[in-house]
Amino acid sequence: MDTPPTLSLSRSTFAKLSPHPYLVANLTGQGRSKSNSSPACCRTNGRTPQQARPLQVHPSSLTHAHGSALVRNGDTTVICGVRAEILPVSNIPQYRPRSHGEVDSDSSSSSRELRDYDLLVPNIELATGCATQFLPGVPPTTLAQTLSTRVYSLLHSCHLVDAADLRIWHNPKDSSSSEAANAQDKMDEDEDANSHKEEDAEPQLMAYWVLYIDLLFVSFDGNPFDAAWTAVLAALHDTKLPSARWDPDREMIVCSPPTRSLRLSGLPIACTAAIFVEKEHGDTGGRHWILLDPDRLEETLCREVVTMVVDCSDGETRVRAIEKHGGTVIGRELIRAFAGVAEKRWTEVQKSAFLTDK
Amino acid sequence: MTHLAPEAALSVLPRADGSAKYSYAGYTVTASVNGPIEAQKRDEQAYEAVVDVIVRPAAGVGGTRERHLESILQSSLSQIILITSFPRGLIQIMLQIESTPENDYVNTKLVQASLNLAIIPALLQTAVLALLSAAVPMKATATSSAVAVVLQDDGAKKMVVDPSPRDIESAQSVHALIFTSHDELLLAESEGDFTVQDWDQAYEVAYNVCCQAEAKKAGTDMMIDDDNDASGSDMRHFIRSTMESKVAADLHWKR
């Protein structure tokens, strides 16, 4: 090719000067040399529109958290730590006592407990120097707050965690018998009095575990929600709660080392795509591309975003959330078609290591 | 579930460029619109106007949930406003929630972080009315509806339009959809547990509520008020008739 040297721009200069035409040129395959055997339709990062970045999950990467995971999706890296803290029922305002025999009539009573007592507290920190647009030392940006709300809503609407796992019961019968076994040298009459007193005592709910789910973005290169949600899932899968019991003598809860892992129902996986339209500045018409798992450059150029959370673990595809806003390209047909893309992504993520080792 | 017909008043605030008060399904929202005005140097964009949406809750200060509502409304409204006509400008939309449906069954904490999809229709409808009242140029208007899929005792699924908090509590899934007046899907937010078929049905129901003005106008106009009970209210016709009565009142002196 004999182009005049005054007009030739390097790829990175072109990308910086006019990112939108740069992405259009890449997607339409303009200016690509004939010898290059790459596919005709290719994004600036070398992926095809329907290709996501490889996902890497490293569970248990933090020592002092009850559960943690580092998730890397391309250059987006999130670390999630789950810390369980005890919330005594006496500290809950408007606490409605529950009896031991009471079974959850449906999932709604468990989710109401989680929501009313705030047993799941996700928080997302973006101001870690993970990308140039997030300044450190400022109040949480709109994006961070939006992500927190989305993670919080999804955690509750999926019924991922069962409130039964987070309850700490005190069973007087158990404790009296174990005390008897431990302390053989106790006075006989004393033991008798104890057992008589506690014979008819019902098990009591003393406290709840509150899970503080903290997410830190180590590096940010687009698609924060998918990475954050995968990190939450992986960290919760990794979470082991200490076995806690109420000590009636000291009137406090005592814990022994973590043994019990959290049971999670289902495996909802998020799948995000951005819609890139050929015409800049809101003009309608022209072609559009659905770019799966957008990176930072693509996200700044796309207005319309669609996220679908699906769960295929029961064999049947259940949708857990759809979020689509910012444009009118994605209509009814494309949402239906996107469910198929989300299913494919689900199988990809499901194969990744963090679930198979359990 | 039957609600009273939606009510709206335009230009209720004398100092704002445009304002509207809207109440339906237990939600009352007042919106004020100022614009196009000059954007702050820090925020201005060289090619288009900045749309700034502020949502204020009925009680307390806005939290993360309000930020999320703001961001999705902002992205939806900037699609229908002709933002490219006002480069370096700012269109500010302030939405004050005045009341939300009362409910004795649901524990209503003052600050709630979880998303409430049922409030999206009220917020959007008010914003669109206020934008019309401020005569901000727009590509299209928008209408919105929320649908809850409730599993009945006999196992059948029932679609509840504009669900109450009690309905949402017992619903399998809740969907909020916004359509433009060109019948395009502008926003779709859903949560819960559902299949693509369920979503499709909810879409159908919401579409009928939001986009039926033309079909009904074929009949006599007088009939419309009676038809409303059948399939919830017809939002597009409602916006149109609200504007018509406002224009008629404003031009009363001409007659």
UniProtKB/TrEMBL annotation, chain A:
One annotated GO molecular function: mRNA 3'-UTR AU-rich region binding
Gene Ontology biological-process entries: exonucleolytic trimming to generate mature 3'-end of 5.8S rRNA from tricistronic rRNA transcript (SSU-rRNA, 5.8S rRNA, LSU-rRNA); nuclear mRNA surveillance; nuclear polyadenylation-dependent rRNA catabolic process; rRNA catabolic process; TRAMP-dependent tRNA surveillance pathway; U1 snRNA 3'-end processing; U4 snRNA 3'-end processing; U5 snRNA 3'-end processing
UniProt entry keywords in alphabetical sequence: Cytoplasm, Exosome, Nucleus, Ribonucleoprotein, Ribosomal protein, RNA-binding, rRNA processing
Ranges where the record places region Disordered: 27-54, 93-112, 173-200
UniProt xrefs under InterPro entries: ExoRNase_PH_dom1, ExoRNase_PH_dom2_sf, Exosome_comp_Rrp42_subfam, PNPase/RNase_PH_dom_sf, Ribosomal_Su5_D2-typ_SF
Top-level taxon of the source organism: Eukaryota
GO cellular component: cytoplasmic exosome (RNase complex); nuclear exosome (RNase complex); nucleolus; ribosome
Localisation per UniProt entry: Cytoplasm; Nucleus, Nucleolus
Pfam families: RNase_PH
Chief localization: cytoplasm
Domain Exoribonuclease phosphorolytic positions: 51-242
Coiled coil regions in record: none
Gene3D superfamilies in alphabetical order: GHMP Kinase, N-terminal domain
Family: Belongs to the RNase PH family.
Protein name: Ribosomal RNA-processing protein 43
Organism of this sequence: Diplogelasinospora grovesii
From TrEMBL, chain B:
Subcellular locations according to the entry: Nucleus
Predominant place of localization: nucleus
Keyword vocabulary terms for this entry: Exosome, Nucleus, rRNA processing
InterPro entries: ExoRNase_PH_dom1, ExoRNase_PH_dom2_sf, PNPase/RNase_PH_dom_sf, Ribosomal_Su5_D2-typ_SF, RNase_PH
GO cellular component, one term: nuclear exosome (RNase complex)
Domain Exoribonuclease phosphorolytic: 9-137
Pfam families registered for this protein in UniProt: RNase_PH
SUPFAM superfamilies, A to Z: Ribonuclease PH domain 2-like, Ribosomal protein S5 domain 2-like
Listed CDD domains: RNase_PH_RRP46
GO MF annotations in UniProt: RNA binding
Biological processes annotated in GO: nuclear mRNA surveillance; poly(A)-dependent snoRNA 3'-end processing; rRNA catabolic process; rRNA processing; U4 snRNA 3'-end processing
Family the UniProt entry places it in: Belongs to the RNase PH family.
Name of the featured protein: Exoribonuclease phosphorolytic domain-containing protein
Record lineage: Eukaryota, Fungi, Dikarya, Ascomycota, Pezizomycotina
